[in-house]
DNA sequence: CCTAGTACCTTGTATAACAGAGTACCTTCT
DNA sequence: AGAAGGTACTCTGTTATACAAGGTACTAGG
């Protein structure tokens, strides 16, 4: 119940960061991203991914171009804008700080947890 | 704008986890926690912490007892229940998995990012 | 009394993920 | 042609959450 929720919350915060990272590697479209995120055990579904992509585009962090598919409807291939790369750097920094802070709190536990 | 939001989102997900950790170390009351979280650079305010504590209590993860203060109103000293410790273990596991997945995605970038 | 400080609580608002249903395009088969 | 099935993108409604801001209550000191 509550714990699953907390686990979901953890993932949430990192999602945008991971998505930006994936796009930064090269042009991809939504289904590619879903595959990568699933492979990395970040359970994400369409209904979550698409709104994020729209948000990132409106914020000017990503852009896309339509590309014909060899089979099926055309695809939106996303890439990072210069602003997007800057933002990614900031988020990377935040991630490291956060990981450090968290590990600090966690390790603290084990030290003082011993009576 | 958008980036600050993403940074806030990252912190959010880890908050409950950190709070449980802090409580697991020994009995503390809200102001103690705020100090610790601030020291670890997790910006949290009262209006965020109290609802979380209430939620954790309703979920049966923490319990508290009133203790008189040497100066001022009485304090609620929180401690973890057995269920709380179990949940903490699960969250710790989730945290490690998530950190691993994220680092996997990040490192992937740097490898393929080199042209 | 009255003020100041500490501790806890509550209400309203904005944001975000998710489920689920929907639209549009392309290919293949009859 | 027309129908069926798959792929890709979109939208709406629900729920959960952090945060800001204001509020209540208890204690100590002038």
TrEMBL record, chains A, B:
InterPro entries: ArsR-like_HTH, Metal_resp_DNA-bind_regulator, Tscrpt_reg_PadR_N, WH-like_DNA-bd_sf, WH_DNA-bd_sf
GO biological process: regulation of DNA-templated transcription
Cleaved signal peptide residues: none
Pfam families: PadR
Domain annotation Transcription regulator PadR N-terminal: ranges: 19-89
Superkingdom assignment: Bacteria
SUPFAM superfamilies in alphabetical order: Winged helix' DNA-binding domain (SSF46785)
Protein name: Lineage-specific thermal regulator protein
Species of the source: Cesiribacter andamanensis AMV16
């Amino acid at each position: 119940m509550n714990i699953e929720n907390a686990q979901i919350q953890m993932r949430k915060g990192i999602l945008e960061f991971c998505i930006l990272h994936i796009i930064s590697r090269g042009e991809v479209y939504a289904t590619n991203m879903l595959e990568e995120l699933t492979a990395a055990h970040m359970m994400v579904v369409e209904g979550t991914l698409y709104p994020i992509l729209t948000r990132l585009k409106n914020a000017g962090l990503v852009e896309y171009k339509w590309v014909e598919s060899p089979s099926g409807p055309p695809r939106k291939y996303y890439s990072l804008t210069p602003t997007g790369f800057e933002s990614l750097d900031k988020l990377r920094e935040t991630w490291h700080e956060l990981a450090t802070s968290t590990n600090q709190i966690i390790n603290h536990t084990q030290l003082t947890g011993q009576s």
